[in-house]
Amino acid sequence: MKTKTSQKRKGNPLIIAFLFVLLLSLAYASVAYSQDTLSYKSYTGKILDSKTKKPIVFANVVLKGTNIGTVTNADGEFLIKVPADWNIEELEITHIGYWSTTIELAELKENGKEIMLAASAIPIEEVTVLYGDPEELLLRAIENIPENYSAEPVMLKAFYRETIKQNRNYVVVAEAVLDIYKAGYKKISGTDRTRIYKGRKSQDVKKMDTVIVKLQGGPFISLMLDIAKHPGEILSKDYMGMYNYTYGGMTSVQDRQSMIIKFEPKEYIQDPIYEGKIFLDTENLAIIGIDFNLDEDKVSEVTELFIRRKPTSMKVDIESANYLIKYRMHEDTWYLSYVRSELNFRCRWKKKLFSSKYELMSEMAVTDVEKENVRKFKYSESSRYSDVLAEQVSQFEDPDFWGKDNIIKPDESIEEAIEKLSRRLKRRM
């Protein structure tokens, strides 16, 4: 008979510290817009599953032969901007589970183009025969991290966005372009740093009730979610004994075969930990993606890990915490490509019937990798665990900047919220 065991949490707490702060106050914000059509050309499109015709979310869209790119939004749409004096003719589109495709920029018309990706899968039986025990394979992948990822520091440029949704309405949108100093992967503990280069924000204050929700540590936390560098409670060898590992079949990433390893807590583990999928490149065993969430059966037990401050008369129920990390290969080396975190929770006032549901989401898409002129900037310039981006970005606003930078194309609902707020603010002036 199995006995129930509780193991003390000793991993990197940053892996789940997607914190928010609840305050009894109201806030106002300004919005900056710009247009710059002289120095770049814009291209749009929509990526769909060739069989189901459903949008493909978080697909990588890259200018072929470069490290410049973006990702598709929740509707499968993308917007990419190409310097006018660049001789770039093709886009490469990739996504875990699909064959890659290349398309000529000239095919993207003014109103965009629907681009189909074909799903790729190999029966699970072939994985078991070829590769044996999944846990041993994962241990080999961990040992190969220093060889599969950049050994030397590089500079990354990334677009970062935070959104907060209350019930059906977007109430906060904050965006920033980040400079990232990415230490080499020879030492797992290498110090990464990120700082805001440009920023802007919006808050739809009309839709916000008496509670203001703030997301803490956003860019810093996104960088710490680089699982290959910060193994935390998923890839740390001390924690692997807490999970069951099984094969989930094979798929394609950048036209390379990759295997899927599923993991879930063992039955006797009482502490809330994770479940999800790890994607490994079959050729070099690089960890090229991980899609995971807090154990759904125990997620309600970790509320105190997410809340830094709240009104005493309010009860908060965490409903889900989901994470997605992706890497992209360039010149036989894998680089961090995309990080997404999502937290869903519900607030209830004691002795009252009504409640509000909140969705907090952050995305970080790496748009460029620079191997030259690598400079580790000062700690005083770096984003920190205690930072609240929405309170900082006004210091980095630049109306002449946003027209030329590659960003994640926002959902229409977000654009409408920003436009609505902009009209409101004009009336106030």
Q: What are the salient characteristics of this protein?
A:
disordered N terminus; mainly beta; 8 helices; four-stranded antiparallel beta sheet; 429 residues
List the helices and strands and how they pair.
Elements: E1 20-23, E2 40-49, E3 60-63, E4 69-71, E5 77-83, E6 90-94, E7 101-104, E8 114-117, H1 124-131, H2 134-143, H3 145-148, E9 154-166, E10 169-182, E11 193-203, E12 212-215, H4 218-224, H5 232-235, E13 243-253, E14 256-265, E15 274-281, E16 287-294, H6 303-306, E17 307-309, E18 314-330, E19 333-349, E20 355-370, H7 389-392, H8 412-428
Parallel strand pairs: 1-17, 2-8
Antiparallel strand pairs: 1-12, 2-5, 3-4, 3-6, 6-7, 9-10, 9-20, 10-11, 13-14, 14-15, 15-16, 16-18, 18-19, 19-20
Q: Could you tell me the radius of gyration in angstroms?
A: 22 Å
Helix content: 10-25%
Q: What is the mean predicted local confidence, pLDDT?
A: 75
Shape: globular
Largest sheet: 10 strands, antiparallel
- Percent strand equals 35-45%
Structural class: mainly beta
Number of β-strand runs = 20
What is the element string, with H for helices and E for strands? EEEEEEEEHHHEEEEHHEEEEHEEEEHH
Distance between the termini: 71 Å
Poorly predicted parts: 1-38, 412-429
Assembly state here? single chain
Spatial ordering of strands, largest sheet: 11-10-9-20-19-18-16-15-14-13
